[in-house]
Amino acid sequence: MSNEFKPMKFGCGRYVQAPGALEIVGREAAMLKSKKALIVGGKQALDSVGAKMEESLKQAGVEPYFYTMTSDCTYETLDYLQNTLIPQQKADLVIGSGGGKVVDMAKASGKCSGLPVMNVPTSVATFNCWSAMSVMYTPDHKPIDRIWHASEIDAVVIDTQVIANAPVKLFASGMADAFAKYIETGLMDESYTVNNTPAGMYTSKVMAGTTNEIILNRGEKAYRDCVAHQVTDDLDACVFANVATTAIAAAVNYSNHSLIHSGNGKGATFAHALYYACKAKYTEETSNWLHGEIVGLGCQASMYAYERGEFETKNFARFMKAINQPMSLKDLGLDTSDKGLKELVDCMMVVWGKRPEAHWPIIYDALQRIKE
Q1: Cα torsion angle, 365, 215, 247, 329, sign
Q2: Which of 61, 173, 198, 371 is the most buried (most CB within 10 A)?
Q3: CATH class of the domain defined by 168-368
Q4: Domain covering 2-165, topology
Q5: Coil, strand or helix at 7
Q6: CA 194, 199, 201, 206: dihedral to nearest 10 degrees?
Q7: How far apart are CA 203 and CA 197, in angstroms?
Q8: What is the pLDDT of residues 167-187, one digit of tens each?
Q9: Distance (Å, whole) CA 22 – CA 117
Q10: Residue 363 confidence (pLDDT) above 60
Q11: Any idea which of 65-74, 164-173, 291-300, 354-363 has the lowest mean pLDDT?
């Protein structure tokens, strides 16, 4: 019976996006009634923003304790933070600062400890700083499952100057990843209209389409602005699209259990399956490739699977090339022989639970188009 009243988790308590926003981290922590905050951060992130966060927190009367995360988002690290460090430090708030795996760990350790969570991302390579979910990995860097949190996080603070100062590779990866909610799931299919589609799914379609429109129209300029470390209207728009509209599109769809299975027989959603299969099967070969870079390549394959028109498909590929994304499986360092391709498809078929057998030839045919 309780499953009939499942809450929709498609927001966050407070969202701040502006240049210089690090200054208000302390204010946001104080609003969450914090006196002692555990900051979970990557080394580079803490070297970059740790001092400003510490100053802001102390000015607001919040004592910070910094934990430098050197692992992936693993259950071993979660156990240490939840059962040892958080009780030891008497922390009443968890703040994540860094990339996707760091903010995922902040969410996991905070939510599993019953504490509020604030994320202060130093890149927008994924929308993980917002989502109510953490992807978990083994100690040898292989993804294993996900933790779906019971509630949204409490605050996201994005300093766009920090984002502009980060390597452009991270910014470009976030734009590539953001396309998945519209392309990978088939929401772009014109047959899904306001009159024949569940309201949640249609809302996701509109939000995901907005993400694509913003990034395809403003992303190349935003990419160049990031190279120049300049915060501009275009960069600001694409940061918002990478994080906010993407996260809402995903969460509304997840909450309604409405991920697309297209009626045209092409419902083999697989851009993320390509990422997880790569990390499971080709862990070492793809160690230097980011989540969004692999997902973006999977989106290119999805365009073929959903039989999009030649102009649309080529325009998307042109954009991805312009922001320096991998354009083939060969670029990723994968075995593109027929045997290697079949093994990759086999892995994609089971990486997050077994898929219908009808998906195998669809995935195989699409990957043939991006193998070299």
Answers
A1: positive
A2: 173
A3: mainly alpha
A4: Rossmann fold (3.40.50)
A5: coil
A6: 60
A7: 9
A8: 999 999 999 999 998 998 888
A9: 16
A10: yes
A11: 354-363
